[in-house]
């Protein structure tokens, strides 16, 4: 199942409506050129003062299986369970310091924008990509000697779409469940803030 457009109340661009976070992955290598295109999309994200604080550490199963396995080990057990066929893991980092060494308060926000560009590019390429917070950030930092100034924000797994029927039943159900979001009036207020009812 690769096509699951969001049931939006108002028409939005199909690329955005179509992007979702699958867990059913095929055990088939992702071409290195496709991975580079994901990073190129992220490179062109917006950032405060054009600081570009995002950094990515990329682990390709087909290129460096040992490094991939070390990165895979940082995932929490639940995420390991459905990522057995993941072909690429991408650690999303934010440089918490600016060029002068002062704290960059916008780093995580900007890195998130770059990660979203990467996810949209994956969807545009017909790939499955899923961002995860469930990983051992200190363990990843230690395993790959990532300097302290770089905050590990998330891990994105990438693969070709697989068959949801191969997932455990509870995850297969989630894969097919209707997509849902909070109502627009719950997330946006016009003209100022007011207390929710």
Automatic annotation (TrEMBL):
Pfam families recorded: Nitroreductase
An annotated Gene Ontology molecular function: oxidoreductase activity
Transmembrane stretches, start-end: none
Nitroreductase domain segment(s): 16-158
Protein name: Nitroreductase
This protein's record includes keyword Oxidoreductase: yes
Entry similarity comment: Belongs to the nitroreductase family.
UniProtKB keywords: Oxidoreductase
Lineage: superkingdom: Bacteria
Lineage: Bacteria, Pseudomonadati, Pseudomonadota, Betaproteobacteria, Burkholderiales
Alphabetical list of InterPro entries matching this protein: Nitroreductase (IPR029479), Nitroreductase-like (IPR000415)
Organism of derivation: Caballeronia calidae
């Amino acid at each position: 199942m690769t096509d699951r457009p969001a049931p939006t109340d108002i028409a939005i661009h199909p690329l955005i409506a179509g992007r979702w976070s699958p867990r059913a992955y095929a055990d088939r290598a992702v071409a290195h050129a496709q991975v580079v295109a994901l990073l190129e999309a992220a490179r062109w994200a917006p950032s405060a003062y054009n600081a570009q604080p995002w950094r990515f550490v990329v682990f390709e199963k087909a290129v460096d299986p040992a490094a991939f396995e070390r990165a895979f080990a940082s995932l929490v057990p639940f995420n390991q369970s459905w990522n057995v066929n993941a072909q690429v893991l991408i650690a999303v980092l934010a440089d918490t310091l600016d060029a002068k060494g002062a704290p960059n308060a916008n780093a995580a926000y900007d890195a998130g924008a770059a990660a979203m560009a990467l996810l949209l590019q994956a969807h545009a390429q017909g790939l499955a990509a899923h961002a995860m917070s469930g990983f051992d950030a200190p363990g990843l930092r230690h395993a790959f000697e990532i300097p302290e100034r770089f905050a590990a924000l998330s891990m994105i797994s990438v693969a070709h779409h697989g068959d949801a029927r191969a997932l455990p039943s509870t995850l297969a159900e989630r894969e097919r469940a209707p997509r849902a979001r909070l109502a627009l009036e719950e997330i946006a207020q016009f003209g100022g803030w007011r207390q929710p009812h």
